Amino acid sequence: MKQIVVVGAGYAGISFLHTVLPHIPEDVQITVLDRLPCHTIKPEYYALASGSLNERKVKAPFPVHERVTYIQDEIQELRIFNHEVVCANQTVKFDQLIFALGCVDNHFNVPWADEYTESIQTFGKAMKTRQKIDALHEEGHVVIIGGGLSGVEFASDLREQHPKLQITMLERSGQVLPTLPERVRNYVRQYLDDHHVDVMTDISVVMIDDKQVYYGTERKALPYDVCVWTAGIMPHPLSNSLLAYSNADRMNRVTVKENYELPYYHNIFVIGDCAASEFAPSAQLAHIQGLQLGEYFLTRWYETEYKPAPIKLKGVLGYLGKKTGFGLVNDNVLLGKVPNVIKSGVLWMHKHHMG
Ligand SMILES: Cc1cc2nc3c(=O)[nH]c(=O)nc-3n(C[C@H](O)[C@H](O)[C@H](O)COP(=O)(O)OP(=O)(O)OC[C@H]3O[C@@H](n4cnc5c(N)ncnc54)[C@H](O)[C@@H]3O)c2cc1C
Q1: Is there a single domain that holds both residue 282 and residue 253?
Q2: What's the gap in Å between 283 CA and the centre of ligand 1?
Q3: pLDDT tens figures, 124-138
Q4: Are residues 273 and 164 part of one domain?
Q5: pTM exceeding 0.85
Q6: Where would a tag sit more exposed on the chain, N or C end, judged by fewer CB atoms within 10 A?
Q7: CATH number where 156 lies
């Protein structure tokens, strides 16, 4: 039996699995390792943290297949020479490894950011953030560091859930959502202003302790009750060991060949937020990479030609609370109810197709 081990059953891993599932040959066994017992919809983690979504809503069951085994465990190390994945409770051998562990927060070496800020980057951390917010008095102060997509979605949803909370967003550049067109940025900024989210731009955070965020060259102090970091991501640290057989792109993602294999080591494949790409990491990109890798495996098993289509992404969609939103789809700006409805539809389809 050939052992394929998939580490990470998020957007990329589950998309690979769905692509190969109906066609797994008799001599292939697939083992999927994840710390969670199900697939989760990561783009909705902000709503777990704000309290607007029940945790059941972000979970989708793993697909069942006689030659697929799921192991719930914490992955701790890759032993590449030994072809082993070391987990907290067991070691799993592989013939082929698919690395899809996603990303973690990047604190950019800001002292104690790791210790004192909350996160919406994993299911467990988003739930912990929610507990901290639920424990606040109703006029407590939540500071959100980072005015990108997840920071904006979190701030607006938090406002809907907790009308009296004081919410401050700190953004390093001159505007929220710096990578989106001006019309979108202005619309979102107006929404945040109207909903009393205090947005501070051109703010460079230099240190965080247990009570205050310090910013700027003068180290001004901003007191907080809960501080949530949404300011940056980096590839999962376990991907660093793969860089010995590859190169890093400017985001430290692992460069791969057209078939997602490491350039200098056979039978290890990287997809999702850890894989280098001309595009920024996203669920959409991870899904396509998982699909293409699945197609590659099918061509190997059934001796056909692998011809991946060039990747085209549709754009970005964001929520502003439960009724409105923003987006840039095929270069068209969308504002108001429509992007909110489209995004809900996309996430609903993903959840029900992947479950
Ligand atoms: C709040 C938020 C909002 C977002 N909104 C959008 C959006 O609107 N559109 C969009 O395209 N993208 C969005 N993203 C980004 C998107 O979710 C990711 O790009 C996508 O999930 C990456 O897929 P992946 O398979 O690489 O990683 P993931 O989907 O994160 O999957 C990684 C898997 O690995 C598992 N794992 C990680 N470490 C370990 C370990 N040590 N042991 C065991 N298991 C482990 C995790 O449990 C997880 O199942 C958002 C992200 C966040 C946090």
Answers
A1: yes
A2: 7
A3: 999 999 999 999 999
A4: no
A5: yes
A6: N
A7: 3.50.50.60
Residues 263 and 216 occupy one common structural domain: no
Same domain, 213 and 227: yes
Q: Which residues pair with residue 135 across a beta bridge? A: none
Q: Name the residue type at position 343.
A: K
pLDDT at 353: 84
Count up the domains in the chain and report the number. 2
- Give me the chain's average pLDDT, please: 97
Which residue among 42, 75, 86, 285 is best mutated to probe the pocket of ligand 1, counting the most ligand atoms within 8 A of its Cβ? 42
Residues 6+ apart with CB under 8 A from 151: 144, 145, 169, 171, 176, 230, 231
- 273 touches ligand 1 (CB under 6 Å): yes
> Is the model's pLDDT at 1 over the cut of 70?
yes
Q: Using one digit for the tens of pLDDT, what is the confidence trace for 41-50?
A: 999 999 999 9
Per the structure, the complete domain to which residue 22 belongs is given by 2-35+73-104+233-313
Cα distance between residue 119 and residue 218, in whole Å: 26
CA of 42 to the centre of ligand 1 (A): 5
Query: Which residue has a Cα nearest atom 6 of ligand 1?
Result: 43
